Amino acid sequence: MAKISVIIPTYNRGKFTVEAVKSILAQTYKDYEIIVVDDGSTDDTKEKLKVFGNKISYIYQKNKGPSAARNTGIQHAEGKYIAFCDSDDRFLPNKLEKQMNFIKEHPKCRFLYSWYYNVNEKGEITKLRKPFSCKHQEQLQYCLFARRFTIRTSTLLLSKKCFKKAGLFNEKYWYSQDWDMWLRLAAYYRGYCLEEPLSEYWLHGENRSSLSVKTHHPEIKENTLKLYGWNDEKIMQLEKLYGKKKKGGKSR
Q: How many other C-beta atoms can be found within 10 angstroms of the C-beta atom of residue 97?
């Protein structure tokens, strides 16, 4: 069994973070560590997490943003694989086991994401989100670049070695930092999708505002075009190939 480091970045979300930790402790896959990176919380997050004792590693740092918190977790991780669980998200009990089984069956897989549920403040499932399955690395690159689907951070499982090629999260991005990261990962890895929901994305008053922030960062697009070596003609070709529903990928 390969060890997984589950990283939970948090900021002033004590109650949510406790539930996130509980969802990881309930995993059927047991070879993991939990690293909670408290990004300068001023609430009772630290006190609430004391209930878990040595079941988690708690790291407190000055508020630097979500990218810096994830990077701190990666740098302290001892596992061969990295999983992220945002503090207001939750894992379904068999998430890690199913993902590790998938990787065992697909030994070339280094970068794996899955479907997930949207859950409202009452704990009710409101929608099943189904990111595309892309059979080609170029298809994944295009679909991510064109924002044809979103990879939810809390569905991801990837080899820690991926960050040596793709780099860490860009700490100047407080929004769309995950989009930037997936685009860079897709430059080196195909990316696989496990087509079943394995995580829950909880929608609440604190995170709804971020959904409407359209900071798609022209800089991210420009950097990606350089990284991929794409021009306008190439993008038009990719639009013809992958812009509509194709046999090689599933529109969701």
A: 14
Q: List the structure tokens of 100.
A: 């590790």
In-domain check, residue 248: no
Please write the tens of the pLDDT for every residue from 183-230.
999 999 999 999 999 999 999 765 544 444 455 589 999 999 999 999
Angstrom distance (rounded) from CA 72 to CA 7 = 9
Number of structural domains in the chain = 1
Distances (CA, A) of 118 to 61, 74, 90, 230: 30, 26, 11, 34
Element (H, E) at 20: helix 14-25
Q: Contact at 8 Å (CB) between 113 and 179?
A: no
Render pLDDT for 99-114 as a digit per residue (tens, 0 to 9): 999 999 999 999 999 9
Domain around 23: 4-242
DSSP-assigned letters across all residues of 96-152: HHHHHHHHHH-TT--EEEEEEEEE-TTS-EEEEE-PPPBSSHHHHHHHHHTTSS---
Residue 248's DSSP bridge partners are none
pLDDT score of 217: 80
Closest CA to 70 of 186, 2, 158, 195: 158
Q: Check residue 106 and give its pLDDT.
A: 96
pLDDT of residue 182: 98
**Contact by Cβ (8 Å): 234, 162:** no
Check which CATH number belongs to the domain holding 116 and give it.
3.90.550.10
Count of beta carbons in the 10 Å neighbourhood of residue 219: 13
Report the 10 Å Cβ neighbour count for 161.
12
